[in-house]
Amino acid sequence: MSINKLISVIIPAYNAASRIKFTLESIINQDYENIEIILVNDSSSDDTASIANKILSESNKTFRIINHEFNKGVCASRNTGLEVSRGEYICFVDADDVLKQNFISCLYQTITRDDCEIAFCGLVDRFTDGTPDKNFHSCSDEPYIESGGHFIINNFVPPFFCCMYNSCFLSKYNLLFHNGCIYGEDIEFITKALCTAQRVSFTQEHLYIYVHHNEMGSVRDNDTKAKKILRYEHNTQAQERTAEYLLRHSQSEQVKTLAEKILMPQVIIRKCNIFALNNNYDGFKSFIHDPNNRKVLISSQSLRVLIHKPEVFLKAFMLLHIPGIYYKLRNK
What's this model's pTM, rounded to 2 decimal places? Predict the structure, then answer.
């Protein structure tokens, strides 16, 4: 294909030596020629950097390998990639996933044809244990162009790595990943991006292959109760930042209502759960009796929330009226 726009593909990598070969080869073999590959090696202790350098050096692609002197986390790695990227469009690929050959060309065609800030595709869940592939898509309708708020309201939020982003759009709104966030950073980033995007489109093709394997972080970091709680805490913090961002920046009253009456009450509920998981009843009791927290929970007590998010309505109701019983249920 003779297309001139440069597209930057950003890959954060930490101890990915066992799978980085497949990821890089799937990018090198894209049917779209004009790409730059930016691999950010987050101070890996294995051969990730040397393997990547060998593969990329033997390709005909423009590439950069940036080595962090110490481990900064996946958010900082993606932000490092954004800082040095030169492409007019940006894609993010995790170091253990692979792309179908037309991932970039199809998303490029979609985002330019529809003059959008974001275009996204479907996902293939691939399992290394032999389980058959499963296709997933955030949308089931025929492709259309809408504001990002439409996708948030209708719960059509795609995985952030299934997207292509206009780089000027990301720069204009200073959209970055939250440094230090370990979990939930992906939903936070894409939801903030959708909040500010005026035009978003999608293709129904399933082009990004998300590989499930025993070494992946979501498996490795769930092996103890402490790690599970840490993961839950970071997800909660990410959701709180997201809700606050929507309230400040969204131009849609429906999105603001969603943030106020569903997302923020969910944050309070999750924080209560954290107290219970940590066996901190005194902290739980003090938190649930705080007038500001109660005000947030009360905002969820409407028929609309009951219909659309009954679990939020019911959990908030229990915390408002029978908090002791709720604590015992979550403390088990």
Answer: 0.94
